[in-house]
Amino acid sequence: MTESKVLETKKAIEDGAVEVDMVVNISDVKNGDYKKVEEEIAELKKAAGDQVLKVIIEACYLTEEEKIAMCKAVTAAGADYIKTSTGFGTGGATLEDIQLFKKAHRTRCKD
After folding, report:
1. Which of 5, 77, 80, 88 has a CA that sits 20 to 30 A from residue 40's CA?
2. Phi, psi (rounded to 5 degrees) for 19
């Protein structure tokens, strides 16, 4: 739940964290509720303040369309980084994912 993630982020910052990793709600992504994902990222970035927020999307489970949507959500929400995986999924970073992220970010930044 977003509320739990916000509380955990605030506590981590209070305890001295300078970087926070979050994992997107994969159900929201798979249901196409990208706005909800973006709003959650924005809430966590607000809670993290000036500290770094890294967003993990578990790319191995996503379609190309979903990956592009996540790149857009991460950028629009003001997070600092997008990460491909936690390391617990069925796959990690691929060259194709990184190329896709770069292309999606470049396109988004021109909007």
Report:
1. 88
2. -140, 140
Q: Is the pLDDT of residue 109 over 90?
A: no
Measured CA to CA, the distance from residue 68 to residue 63 in angstroms comes to: 9
H or E element at residue 10: helix 2-14
- Asked if 52 and 79 touch (Cβ cutoff 8 Å), the reply is no
- Where do the structural domains in the chain lie, given as residue ranges? 2-110
Is 20:46 a contact under the CB 8 Å cutoff? no
Give the pLDDT confidence of 1-50 residue by residue, as tens digits: 999 999 999 999 999 999 999 999 999 999 999 999 999 999 999 999 99
DSSP secondary structure code for residue 62 in this structure: -
